[in-house]
Amino acid sequence: MNVMLPRVEWARALERVSAAVPSRSTLSALRCIAVEASEGVVRSRASSLSLHMRAQTKPIRVDREGGIALPENILRPLVQSLNGDTITLDVDPDRLVATLTCLGKEYRIHGLPATDIPQMPVPSGDDVLSFQVGCAALERAIGDATAFAARDETMPTICSAYFDATSNERVDVVGTNRHRISVTGMDTEVTVTGETRSAILPRDHAEKIARVLPGGDVLATVAITRKLLGVTIPDLEVASALTEGEYPGYAAFVGRVRASVVARVKVNRRDLLEAVERLLILSDKENITLRKVSLRADAGDSGLTVSRSVPEVGNAEEVVPAEADERVAVSCSGVYLKDALVGLTCDDLELQFARMADGMPPVVLIEAGSRFISIAPMEDSEE
């Protein structure tokens, strides 16, 4: 193989596919990026066996086709650190040595056969769910879900971003840890050729996919089968294995919460967020996971009281300008509430409080645009 590549574009391709390289692996091939030239295109690809990425770079010229797999921890930083506009890559197929030339400087790297890197799987067959959506919307929906998903990998079905085609015109992306839930809807035309309507995408894979999306109005094509989720955008393909199992029945819960609202409080999102952030400073360093805050308002009040008390540390209280239609008092995780407020972009919002059963403290509910957020209440003894 002998090709000349635009350095910046190739560096970007290598940066993207490096997300699929596992941080730890006993297989040397999985620590490499395969670089292949064929049909006038240079493709860089990597795989962890369960996550695959392949990026295309348009070369300046291709004098000889071929391929090689080179260590990611050498190739990527080297290409990024060079200063020239172009890089020439020449591969000796017999010795499996790649020579990179840039501004008269030469670097020789020993590699492996490109065929040692697992090939890119493609979602296909007679049971495929597919849709198109803007990359910015997809990145936001995945980020919303993974922020609320479980972190405990012993619960793989909820340590995930869950894709659910609720109709032929909408796909929900869901994240939950059983104490809070986020549902972000994406309006799109859904094509279904079989029975597949959903996918449990592992959280770490979802986060990596969101990270390599270009944002903006670039359209992404998402294809889902029973075992695979693929995302295709110009110059990049991603495929991830899915988690097997059954996701919790979130849709029925969402319906019950909406039907059980007993109070509403209108408040400025930024004002509430800043108050919560200040209260969270008051913490016992040995127990900072949930950090309970209390919310209180009376009908007709012009303020929402937000307070926090930590034994042997101190207590604090702030009143945020707000309008309440009914009396409400509830405690919830300040960390979860902060995460919810940070993830929203609206100026003003309506906090809703849903009483799921008599004698039970209400659930905190926020609906803004296409997003539904619910946070479970905390008992006084919880922290």
Molecular structure report:
This protein is α+β, with helices and mostly antiparallel strands and about 375 residues long. It folds into three domains: about 1-115, DNA Polymerase III, Chain A, domain 2 (Roll), CATH 3.10.150.10; about 130-250, DNA Polymerase III, Chain A, domain 2 (Roll), CATH 3.10.150; about 255-375, Roll (DNA Polymerase III, Chain A, domain 2), CATH 3.10.150.10. Helix content is about 20%, strand content about 45%. The chain is built from seven helices and 26 strands. The strands form three sheets. The protein has a twelve-stranded antiparallel beta sheet, sandwiched between helices. β3 (about 40-45) and β4 (about 50-55) form a beta hairpin. It is elongated, with a radius of gyration of 25 Å.
Helix and strand layout, with pairings?
Blueprint: E1 2-6, H1 7-17, E2 32-38, E3 41-47, E4 51-57, E5 61-64, E6 66-71, H2 72-81, E7 86-92, E8 97-102, E9 105-110, E10 129-134, H3 135-148, E11 160-167, E12 170-176, E13 180-187, E14 191-192, E15 198-202, H4 203-212, E16 219-224, E17 228-233, E18 236-241, H5 250-259, E19 261-268, H6 269-280, E20 292-297, E21 303-310, E22 314-324, E23 328-333, H7 334-342, E24 348-354, E25 363-368, E26 371-375
Helix pairs in contact: 1-2, 3-4, 6-7
